[in-house]
């Protein structure tokens, strides 16, 4: 049953040290503000799950929140590498980062299986690649045709966090544009948080929108700008400059640490 | 040279083909085709947009304009299950850090997987694009570091790779599935391409020279590019 | 690539004797007119697939078009039995009808698997019931947890037929209201036909709508009223009277045959 | 008597509970609860409508009004995978042609499966509703033909059946999961209920009499029914 609570409260109550946490957003509506709150609350030993980890995951990893990353494509979209993730993988700084790497198809099927309360998803994939031997998949045989397929274990995060455009006062949520895997993440997770641009009296149905009823969400937090610097269709465009700048900020450990101190750790919680 | 790469790839798209495109060169090539000889090409971005008709080239597949101009937007699980795995896509574009003579690609690591020299972004949609679309188009710059004898990691298989467009020319598989040089770009010597390839590259008997971009292509390219495309 | 063709042509070209055919519509937007055209063209030995076979399947079965029915709930919704289906099952009239019976969950998973080009779907179902031993399911073991689940073979109909509100002139289709399994049926089928209420210049995006691009459909036919007597949201409501009357029409073989002669076989093809 | 059945079932719904409802008595009961003590009950119809708020009782789960008034409409595969199998539903209503003492139900055939005396509509959503919702409510009229010693076919299992509302009274499982009579409706004798049950029906020590419908319940029921509800 969704309660409208400040973001600080939502993260305090629903994200715990050692949790498996998915902050999702397929290159759109990325819950940056929620990630920053996780950093401010100094969560540790998280297993971070995401199809497309980008800047906010680079920040979480660089600040030492994570012990493991489960993903399918990690980069700064249109710019290049995630320097903090690379530093963790290549040089164990600030701590070693274990990787569990999938294809997009495998990650998507794992979320869908989690949402459907199944222990695994099935894809015709991972075939003849080196990925199969490095990751957590198993062969499964079709009992009707004998075909060999890949089974991926379902994602069932302890906490799932997404950003949406709107909630109503009861906590029903609507998001639109590129809706990615957000429905699946909320339904697959044991606990869920949605940050929203706006709280409205009534959700007006929109083409292509995903509506999540309040009774499948644990907390809704009103955080205008909560996806910045990523997109929130209808509210703001991507801050492309920032993505380019991030390459410079994140390259050196000192500059990164100072930037985080000034821009994330000291930031007052507005919502 | 990336202009010529985009033109070479775009020319190979037939009108009406359904294309799974990523950001950067593939998006440029597919939109160039739409703007010239193939106005009915269907652009699908893996973020879920089917039939996107961007007026400006997006910097990210998360760009809202792709959703707003699309015929339909579907969830990411549906995109990979019903549309890609469903084998509804004609053409898929892939890039990579390394390619071998059979069109297998590496976009995962340079060096050992557990102790990599360079940790790359990873496969993303590539492993299943490579086995689910009818024809794979690969686009990457050619050098001995990228055109290797042996991949450090096999991210995707080459069996459906039909063409590799580089900054020096075009490679296509021969009857045995080994890539050979079929086109050089204007001003490029075949030996230059061989020197930029770590394996012993075969050269097609009927090696051709890529036709220089036409006025129409250059015009379309310029109008696409001036709207903020990368690279 | 969808062509706009008369319904007669679409059925002639795309539905063949012996085919597995799904005319779907989950109690809404049921493609009655297309079913009547199949009857008029006297198709035989069809395997009919549908989650909720109702009046139009009663007609197809009673007219001897089908040798097998794959389904999960067969009845006249809100009224009672399907007398023609019962007569075929209980008394082999006009010919024996083989049944393959599933649960709704199994049928839905089978369509989704077909759309996803997988040979089977997975459900936590059919457990401890007598259905499991009568139908076509197999146990499958999760390779991660050891849990036993049910695998259902994918539906891959030869022909899938649905009704929608609108198409544009290129054959892109939009349907809304209760959209059921229609997307899955079109994507799972080797050949597909969509009948539509209206052909418009431009599809206007609507909340909750399903859009099927023209390149996944083989034929679009303009058949106003093509779902009558079922619902077509935005165009007409259900003809409840007819559903009640059908119980009377269908109870006796003679009355049924006469009604079909007068109302279906003699009907001129309008579209 | 169906009025009293609807009232008895409706009273057992808590405000805010998420209910998976079919057409007929379950829809009547759930909408009655919404109109009286439980305005925040969430109605889900298996056709895909989540949070439907019909002003008239639908004659079919395909009624467009369910979609138009719903908080969200999802596809049928999603309904069964994410919402029902996902165990997000509190209450599921089932009817049947036969029930046994453990709440197992038959809605498939009377007689032998391959040569049935009566071919019934079949299980539909029942097999998975019975194992996926928190509490199953069964509603059916009581007779020796329907309350049987042994089912002709087991369509769904009884392990989550919490209450069986009939035209004579209410049955609930005891500690061993055997249904026993816990309420009789006004004017009904326990022996009458035993006579309408083919197994040796136990009677609860604290057997109660169903409270007659209140003015509010009758008023709500009438306003729901006059809008065209069946049976």
Structure explained in plain terms:
The complex is a heterotetramer, with 2 copies of chain A (271 residues) and 2 copies of chain B (231 residues). Chain A has 271 residues and is an alpha/beta fold. Chain A has helices at residues 7-14, 32-40, 55-62, 83-91, 104-115, 131-134, 182-188, 240-251, 253-265, and strands at residues 3-4, 20-23, 46-50, 66-71, 98-101, 120-123, 138-141, 148-153, 159-168, 173-175, 191-200, 210-212, 219-222. Chain A has 2 domains: 3-102 and 158-265, 3-Layer(aba) Sandwich (Glutaconate Coenzyme A-transferase); 105-153, no CATH class. Chain A has 9 helices and 13 strands. In chain A, strands 1, 2, 3, 4, 5, 9, 10, 11, 12 and 13 form a 10-stranded mixed β-sheet that branches. Chain A has a 3-stranded antiparallel β-sheet with strand order 6-8-7. The radius of gyration of chain A is 18 Å and the shape is globular. Chain B has a single domain (2-223), classed as Glutaconate Coenzyme A-transferase (3-Layer(aba) Sandwich), CATH 3.40.1080. In chain B, 26% of the residues lie in helices and 24% in strands. In chain B, the strands form 3 sheets. Chain B has a 10-stranded mixed β-sheet with strand order 4-3-2-1-5-10-11-12-13-14, with helices on both faces. In chain B, helix 1 (2-11) packs across helix 2 (25-35) and helix 2 crosses helix 7. Chain B is globular. Chain B starts with a helix and ends in a 6-residue tail after the last helix.
């Amino acid at each position: 049953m969704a309660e409208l609570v400040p973001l600080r409260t939502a993260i305090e109550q629903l994200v715990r040290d050692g949790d498996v946490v998915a902050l999702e957003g397929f290159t759109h509506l990325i819950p940056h503000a929620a990630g920053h709150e996780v950093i401010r609350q100094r969560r540790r030993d998280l297993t971070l799950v995401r199809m497309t980890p980008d800047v906010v995951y680079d920040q979480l990893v660089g600040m030492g929140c994570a012990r493991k990353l489960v993903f399918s494509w990690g980069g700064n979209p249109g710019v290049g590498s995630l320097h903090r993730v690379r530093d963790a993988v290549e040089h164990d700084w600030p701590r070693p980062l274990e990787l569990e790497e999938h294809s997009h198809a495998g990650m998507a099927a794992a979320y869908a299986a989690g949402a459907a309360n199944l222990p695994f998803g099935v894809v015709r994939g991972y075939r003849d690649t080196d990925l199969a031997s490095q990751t957590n998949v198993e062969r499964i045989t079709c009992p009707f045709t004998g075909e060999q397929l890949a089974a991926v274990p379902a994602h069932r995060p302890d906490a799932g966090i997404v950003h949406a455009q709107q909630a109503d006062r009861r906590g029903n949520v609507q998001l639109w544009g590129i809706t990615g895997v957000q429905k699946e993440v909320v339904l697959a997770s044991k606990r869920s948080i949605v940050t929203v641009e706006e709280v409205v009296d009534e959700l007006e149905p929109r083409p292509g929108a995903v509506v999540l009823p309040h009774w499948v969400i644990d907390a809704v937090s009103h955080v205008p700008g909560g996806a910045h610097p990523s997109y929130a269709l209808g509210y703001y465009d991507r801050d492309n400059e920032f993505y380019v700048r991030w390459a410079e900020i994140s390259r050196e450990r000192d500059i990164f640490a100072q930037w985080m101190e000034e821009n994330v750790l000291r930031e007052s919680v507005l919502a | 040279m990336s202009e010529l790469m985009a033109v070479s790839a775009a020319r190979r798209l037939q009108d009406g083909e359904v294309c799974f495109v990523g950001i950067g060169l593939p998006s440029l090539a597919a939109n160039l085709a739409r703007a010239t000889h193939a106005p009915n090409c269907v652009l699908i971005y893996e973020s879920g947009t089917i039939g996107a008709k961007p007026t400006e080239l997006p910097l990210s597949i998360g760009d809202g304009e792709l959703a707003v101009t699309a015929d339909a937007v579907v969830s990411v699980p549906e995109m990979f299950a019903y549309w890609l795995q469903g084998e509804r896509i004609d053409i898929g574009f892939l890039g990579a850090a390394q390619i071998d003579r059979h069109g297998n690609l590496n976009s995962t690591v340079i060096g050992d997987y557990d102790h990599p020299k360079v940790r790359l972004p990873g496969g993303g949609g590539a492993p299943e694009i490579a086995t689910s679309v009818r024809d794979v188009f690969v686009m990457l710059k050619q050098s001995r570091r990228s055109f290797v004898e042996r991949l450090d990691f096999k991210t995707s298989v080459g069996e459906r790779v039909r063409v590799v467009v580089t900054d020096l020319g075009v490679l296509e598989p021969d009857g045995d599935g080994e890539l050979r040089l079929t086109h050089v770009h204007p001003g490029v010597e075949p030996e230059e391409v061989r020197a930029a390839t770590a394996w012993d590259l075969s050269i097609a008997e009927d090696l051709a020279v890529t036709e220089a971009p036409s006025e129409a292509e250059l015009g379309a390219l310029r109008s696409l590019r001036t709207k903020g495309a990368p690279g």
